[in-house]
C-alpha cells in the first residue's frame, strides 16, 4: 500500500516526487551514525537537526533512519495517519520491560484496543467530573504537616503528590492507601530505567536498566499483594483495579494477574512522571514571572473565596492557571521526542518517499520554538494562549500531548490535575526559588534535576485553603 | 448550525456528552454518535461548551 499525505492543510502543497531523502544532520559517524549523541544528548541533536535542515531532517541511529518532522504542516501529516500507515507500536516497544509482555504495545493490535478500552472509562467525562475533589484532598493532605516556613525538594514533592493524585483517581482509593514510601522509591527506579538509549536497545547492560528490572520485580510483588487482598476480601469497588479484575476479553477470557499488573503499571506510568515534572516546571516558571503570577493569584482568590471547594465547573473559571500550565508544557514538554514507524510499503510527504521501517520523529520541544508559530518562543508568556492571541488554536501546533488518534489519552486529566494542585497550593503557601540556573535531567522525561529546593511560607492555616 | 467532527481526532473522551447530552453520545466502545447533526439554536451555548472543552479539539460548529 502506498499512501500520500493529503489533508485540508497539506492539499495543494504536495510537490512533484523528489529523489533521495531529506538532508542529513551533521555529525554522523561511520556505522553508529548519530547513535552516541542520540543517547547522550538527544535534545541537542534534535535541535541542531532542525536548525540545519528545517522542516525535514534525517538522522541515523546505527542502520535506522529517523526523519525529524517539524512544523504544523509536517506534524499534521505525521499525526493524522492511520495505524496501518504510521504506527507508534515499534517505538513504544521500549515500554515492554516496564509494562510486561503481552500488555498494551506488546499485545496484538486487537488485544491492545481491548486493553485500552478498559482504561477509557477512568478518563471519560463521568469520572473526570469527580477528580477535582480527589486531587484537592490529596494536595491538602501532602502539605498538612508543613510549618509556617520551610524548604522542600520540589522534585520529590511533585513526584510524591502526583503519585498519590493520579493513583487515587485512576486506580482507586484502596490502592492509593497501600502506597508506601518503598513503593514510591521502587517506582522511581522503574521510571528512571527508560531513557532515549532505550530506543536503541531496551536492555542495555547499564545500572539504570538493572535497577529498573529489580524495581519491576518488587513492584509486581507489591501490586500482587494488593490484588490478592482485594480478592480475598470479596469486596467490590468502583475503581480501575476492579474493572481489570472483572474484565473479560471478547473471547471470554479474563486478564491474568500478569496482565492486571502490567495494565496498572501502564496507567501509572503514563500519567505520573509527566504530570509530576509539569507541576514542578509550572511553579518554577511562575516564580520567575512574578507579574503574571500576581494576576493568576488574583484570579484564584476571586474564584475560590475562603471555604470554596474545587469543582469541575470552577476549574473552568481559572484560565490564567491553565495558560501557565500550558506554557510550561510548551517550553518544557515532558516527552521531547515522539515516534512513529512506517508500516505501509511507503509513506509520502512533500515529494519524499519514506520506505517501510523508517522512523518519523517529532520533537514538541523543537516544534514549540518555531518563531512563526509561537511569538518570541523562548519566553515564558502564558498570555499567548489567551483571548485575541490563541497561538495554539490551529490544530497540530501545540503538540506536548502528541496529536491525532494516539494523542495522549490523559491530556484532559493532566490539565485538570495540575490545575487543581495549583488552585490549592498557591492559596495555602507562597514560594521562593533558591537556585538558578535550572538544569534539566536527560531521561526520557525532561524534569528539573533533583534536588531542587524551594522555600515556602504559609499564607493560611490548614482547612482554610 | 451544523456539527462537524474531525474523525481523525476524536478519542471518545465523552466530554461533549457531559456538556451537551442532547447532541452527543459516546457508546461503550468509545465511539461518538452525533444525535442531532443540526441542533436548534437554543442548544448553541451547550454545544459551544462541548467545542471549547473537547480534549482533542475534534468538534467544530459550521454556520
Strand order of the largest sheet of chain A: 2-3-9-6-4
Number of strands of chain B: 4
Largest interface: chains, residues each: A-B, 18 and 18 residues
Number of domain units of chain A = 1
* Spatial shape of chain B: globular
Which structural class do you get from the secondary structure elements of chain A?
alpha+beta
Summarize the structure.
With 465 residues, chain A is an alpha+beta fold. Chain A contains 18 helices and eleven strands.
Ordered list of secondary-structure elements with their pairings:
The complex is a heterodimer of chains A (465) and B (63).
Chain A: E1 2-4, H1 35-40, H2 42-53, E2 56-61, E3 64-69, H3 72-80, E4 86-87, H4 96-99, H5 109-123, H6 125-143, E5 149-153, H7 154-170, H8 173-177, H9 181-192, H10 197-200, H11 207-233, H12 240-246, H13 257-271, H14 273-287, H15 290-303, H16 319-331, E6 338-342, E7 346-349, E8 352-355, E9 359-362, H17 364-367, H18 411-428, E10 429-433, E11 453-458
Helix pairs in contact in A: 6-7, 6-18, 7-14, 9-11, 14-16, 14-18, 16-18
Chain B: E1 2-5, H1 15-19, E2 24-26, E3 32-34, H2 44-53, E4 59-62
Antiparallel strand pairs in B: 1-4, 2-3
Descriptive labels:
heterodimer, A: 465 residues, alpha+beta, Cytochrome p450, three-stranded mixed sheet, globular, disordered N terminus, B: 63 residues, Alpha-Beta Plaits, two-stranded antiparallel ribbon, 2 helices, 4 strands, 24% helix
Please explain how this structure is put together.
The complex is a heterodimer of chains A (465) and B (63). Chain A is an alpha+beta fold and 465 residues long. In chain A, 46% of the residues lie in helices and 11% in strands. Chain A has 18 helices and eleven strands. In chain A, helix 9 packs across helix 11, helix 14 crosses helix 16 and helix 16 packs across helix 18. The longest helix of chain A is centred in the middle third of the chain and has 27 residues. Chain A is globular. The N and C termini of chain A lie far apart (59 Å). Chain B has one domain: Alpha-Beta Plaits (2-Layer Sandwich), CATH 3.30.70. In chain B, 24% of the residues lie in helices and 22% in strands. Chain B contains two helices and four strands, in the order βαββαβ. A two-stranded antiparallel ribbon of chain B has the order 1-4. Chain B has a two-stranded antiparallel sheet with strand order 2-3. In chain B, a hairpin with a 5-residue loop joins strand 2 and strand 3. In chain B, 38% of the residues are buried. The chains are: A alpha+beta (465), B alpha+beta (63). At the A-B interface, helix 5 and helix 6 of A face helix 1 of B.
